[in-house]
TrEMBL record:
Cofactors that this protein relies on: Mg(2+)
Subunit structure: Monomer.
Binding site for Mg(2+): 16, 110
Name the UniProt record assigns to this protein: DNA polymerase IV
Gene: dinB
Enzyme Commission (EC) number: 2.7.7.7
Family matches, as SUPFAM superfamilies: DNA/RNA polymerases, Lesion bypass DNA polymerase (Y-family), little finger domain
Site entry: Substrate discrimination: 21
Organism: Pseudoxanthomonas daejeonensis
Keyword DNA damage found: yes
Length: 363
């Protein structure tokens, strides 16, 4: 059965910088080159922002506690993050991409999708564009990037990880089914350890195994995510590259110097609500949903959310809703928390929110 790739196929590149923050540090400080570098503030509550490939050999990974990284790699050099320099390098890289296409969708400072179906640089193929971008990044920033070229975003993201670091992998439409069939299901974005365990309990270890299940069966077991799994197993992803995506969420969070009980979190929640509110004002849009995030001392993450009838209209209103969400956390009384976050999501244009309010207003 031939791969079900949408026709006509797009030409998508996923560019992913190699150990970006750590690589910037090694570039700017020659004494760090070839050494295991961990970008993180030191301290009991700190987490790893990035790790060089030398540090990754010891099992150090982003988002792990810095203390654990230090245990895994005692010789690691810890460097505090400098986001001003990382953002400057990211802007350089973005300009290089924009020389080839206006359809650049940033995912973060260090990765982006590009639609080069009609590249404005005039190069003959998507592969040539990817090679040119990687070469210019190396020449102008002294950093390396890996890239994946494929018919859609899902496949391009998998491909960019295939020959890391400093690699290029091209996946053509006719190769999709053969490429996907033996892959572990854990390589599908969104399939974490929990979902992987559920699939393995059904005897599904590879994408080929997943492809054997019907759409109806996957939807019955996993709802809307089952439909996404059905598409991904066949290499289907019709999402366009969206260069100017509006803000979808804004949040602020804080990790405490020591674990706190739930009833001691109010000052932090109010402070974070104010910070999140100020950030949301810069978007020019209106958020409908309030989110409270908590992380326990055992690193269990809890989230509570509420979409009120009327969007919060001040930092105080946001804090009030976040505190109400705190009251809905039903954990044992002795539970301690290491982190709290307050977020806003479900952003809409002001006129859209106003029209909805008019629609439901009383005559």
């Amino acid at each position: 059965m031939p791969p079900e790739v949408p026709q006509p196929s797009r030409k998508i590149i996923h560019v992913d910088m190699d150990a970006f923050y750590a690589s910037v540090e090694q570039r700017d400080d020659p004494s760090l080159r070839g050494r295991p570098v961990v970008v993180a503030w030191r301290g009991a509550r700190s987490v790893v922002c990035a790790a060089s490939y030398e540090a990754r050999k010891y099992g150090v990974r982003s988002a792990m506690p810095a203390l654990r990284a230090e245990r895994l790699c005692p010789d690691a050099v810890f460097v505090p993050p400098d986001f001003i320099r990382y953002k400057a390098a990211s802007r350089q890289i973005r300009e290089i991409m924009l020389a080839h296409t206006d359809l650049v969708e940033p995912l973060s400072l260090d990765e982006a999708y590009l639609d080069v179906t009609e590249a404005k640089s005039g190069l003959p193929s998507a592969t040539a564009v990817a090679e040119a971008i990687r070469a210019r990044i190396r020449e102008e920033t002294a950093l390396t990037a890996s890239a994946g070229v494929a018919p859609n975003k899902f496949l391009a993201k998998i491909a960019s990880d295939w020959n890391k670091p400093d690699g290029l992998f091209v996946l053509r439409p006719r190769q999709v089914e053969t490429f996907l069939t033996p892959l572990p299901v854990g390589r599908i974005p969104g399939v974490g350890k929990v979902m992987q365990g559920k699939l393995e309990a059904l005897g599904i270890a590879t994408v080929g195994d997943l492809r054997a299940l019907s759409l109806e069966e996957l939807q019955r077991r996993f709802g809307s995510f089952g439909a996404a799994l059905h598409r991904r197993a066949r290499g289907i992803d019709e999402r366009p590259v969206e260069p100017d995506q509006p803000v979808q969420s804004v949040s602020s969070e804080d990790t405490f110097a020591e674990d706190l009980p739930l009833d001691a979190l109010e000052p932090a929640i109010r402070q974070l609500a104010d910070k999140t509110w100020q950030a949301s004002r810069k978007t020019g849009r209106v958020a409908r949903t309030v989110v409270l995030k908590l992380k326990t001392a055992q690193f269990r993450i809890l989230t509570r959310s509420l979409t009120p009838d009327a969007p919060p209209d001040s930092a105080q209103a946001l804090a009030t809703i976040a505190l109400a969400l705190r009251a809905k956390v039903a954990m044992p009384a002795g539970t301690r928390y290491r982190l709290v976050g307050v977020g806003l999501s479900g952003f809409r244009e002001p006129e859209e929110v106003a029209s909805q309010a008019d629609l439901f207003a009383a005559d």
